User: Fold Putative fungal fucose-specific lectin protein from Botryosphaeria parva.
Amino acid sequence: MILDIKEAAEPAKEPTICGLRKNTFWIVLSFILLMIIAVAVGGGVGGSLANKKSNDSTSTTSDNTSSNGSSSETTATVIPLLSNTSLASINWTDADGTSNYHVFYQLSTGALAQSAWNTSTRTWTTHPVAPASPLIKNGTPIAASLYWHNASRRSYQLYWLDPTNAVRGLLSNNAPLGPFAPSSVDGRYTAGPRSPLASYGRACPDCLDANAVAFVDVDDRLRLAVNTPL
Assistant:
């Protein structure tokens, strides 16, 4: 695989939309749409976690009630989301027509996790991605993408920043719930302190054949790390 990094070209003059440069307008519009989707999905995930907590607490209390009527109160441990967590999501459809939706986020412990839902089970489930560690920035931006190899194989990718703002990446080959291992991007590039992250992967046979993660460097320049499969 060839790993390259490119700087976005800056044209001499660019048409504007609503007073903004064309590229800036589309970036802002995309960000607004992503935020709307994130809020909607976050509400669904949060509601699912709340219901799970309620059900777990009820089940635990019931299981700890003895035959003589006495009980010992035990509350299931539910780790809340970080209050300012970023959200990233991917979706795809299996060969059998099952649609899959995965949402990635940061927990209050600093760990990274995901919630998954599909049209077959119609139930949200939560799964660990990366445990809390010095390599995960608190409140890190998060980006996720998948890469379609063929009808029976996909790679799943997650990106975030560490406390030094190095771009970190994990990859899972054909296993959306993991395990994940460091990708070729991991630790190779440094973003600016306020940089967001965005990523792209070929999601279908006719899509652009590339993997890419975008970030803003310390000089406020847009950078694109492109990972082109051979």
